[in-house]
Design brief:
The chain is an all-alpha fold. It is built from 20 helices and no strands. The longest helix has about 35 residues.
Length: about 425
């Protein structure tokens, strides 16, 4: 165990890409210990991505880019503005709510900040939002992508730990909505007390409201189709991704906003993102197999249980701290496949519910996508908003603390996350 993790952290410190760190440390471990022949590296990598459930990831990625290219995100923003446009800090609330809705369609943080941030950030700065705070808000709001289902992080976790994907999706709804509500409260406080932004005076007539609703209605139906179909058992998450992608193409054609050039660009970007995720998953499956074959989880359980002495408070403190620190240095998908097989067995041995552990793990892990130094959404926001890294990170601080608060709450009060899955099962 010491050899495996020593190699891992040394290679990580040298700056190697995480997928190559996992592969190289695994190869060194197998060579030194003679646990298995090296041909197993290739076999496990291929087997790791040979999963019907994992096909949902590229399909949801394609759907996210299609929505952005077809201009569906603009229709969501226009519709949301009708409700929050006249509230103090309304533009920030529009960005948060639109990100939450977009998250319920794509499950991708970078796609959310690209689709919503590019539209909302200039408008927020123009209306008086400090540049760093506006960038921090759209970046943090994009973190709702992997929290509100469908979520690629949840798909990877469910595949790795053999828990029902649809049930995990349902469990992620309440934490995601709670985070969005707290984000809106924080934005309102800063807009009113700190930035002292004026209210918008624009009013919408009934005719205008109906026109905006009708324009947004086909897009708003998409999460109903996807999530309703999954939760109702009509189709699997993978089939939902395919249906959502085709639906987005149809809308783009009907609205005449999806050209051949845009479509080719969508598939290029989706291919790059999907290939990166697939390669990482394949390499991580090797690491997971070694951890299981070397019985590392059992060793950790045997070591920690006497120390914890059944005290779930200390377990949750250690659990959350490890995930928060890991999220700062590891990409979310790799962190799931590396840490879940190690940490989750300890919680199960203490009698905690598998689904409770799953939702706390996934929600906490998503904080890493917006935290320095390696947050993927953070870098995307810097690129889109042309705002310095430090300013964006500073603007995220209150929202990061809000996400941590929600993680603590769902750890202490399991029913916050589990009431909806339990309700649907009853």
């Amino acid at each position: 165990m010491a050899l495996l993790f020593s190699c891992f952290f040394v290679l990580l410190a040298l700056g190697l890409p995480i997928a190559f760190v996992i592969f190289t440390s695994s190869a060194i471990y197998l060579t030194v210990t003679d646990l298995s022949p090296l041909i197993l590296l290739v076999q496990k990598a291929v087997a790791g991505v040979d999963s019907f459930s994992l096909m949902a990831i590229p399909l949801f990625i394609v759907m996210g880019y299609l929505m952005e290219a077809a201009g569906l995100s603009q229709r969501l923003i226009d519709w949301t503005e009708m409700f929050f446009g006249r509230v103090t800090g309304g533009l920030g609330m529009i960005a948060i709510v639109a990100s939450a809705i977009f998250a319920a369609l794509t499950g991708s943080g970078p796609a959310t900040v690209a689709a919503i941030g590019t539209i909302m950030f200039p408008r927020m700065v123009q209306k008086g939002y400090p540049r760093g705070d506006a960038a921090g808000l759209v970046s943090a709001a994009a973190a709702l992508g992997p929290v509100i289902p469908p979520s690629t992080v949840m798909i990877i976790y469910a595949t790795t730990m053999s828990v029902p994907i649809s049930e995990l999706f349902v469990a992620g709804v309440t934490p995601g909505v709670l985070i969005a509500v707290i984000f809106c409260v924080i934005n309102y406080y800063y807009a009113k007390k700190v930035w002292r932004l004026p209210k918008e005076t624009k009013r919408y007539t009934f005719k205008e409201s109906m026109r905006l609703t009708l324009k947004a209605l086909p897009t708003l139906l998409l999460p109903v189709i996807i999530l309703g179909g999954i939760y109702g058992g009509i189709f699997t998450p993978t089939e939902a991704g395919a249906i959502g992608a085709m639906y987005s193409v149809v809308l783009g054609i009907v609205y005449r906003s999806l050209t051949w050039k845009k479509l080719v660009d969508v598939f290029k970007k989706s291919l790059e993102a999907s290939a990166m995720a697939g390669f990482l998953i394949g390499m991580s499956s090797i690491f997971c197999w070694i951890i299981a074959a070397a019985k590392i989880p059992a060793q950790i359980v045997d070591t920690l249980l006497p120390v914890l002495n059944g005290n779930t408070f200390f377990f949750w403190v250690a659990f959350l701290l490890i995930l928060l620190v890991a999220g700062c240095v590891l990409e979310a998908l790799s962190a799931v496949v590396i840490l879940a097989p190690i940490l989750i067995p300890v919680g199960l041995a203490m009698g905690l519910e598998p689904m409770h552990l799953a939702v706390v793990f996934c929600v906490t892990m998503t904080i890493g996508i917006v935290t320095p130094p390696f947050g993927g959404v953070l870098f995307t926001t810097v690129s889109i908003t042309k705002t310095p890294f430090g300013e964006v990170a500073k603007g995220e601080i209150p929202y990061i603390f809000a996400m941590i608060l929600v993680c603590v709450l769902i750890a202490i009060f399991p029913d916050l996350a589990l009431w909806l899955p339990n309700l649907m099962q009853s």
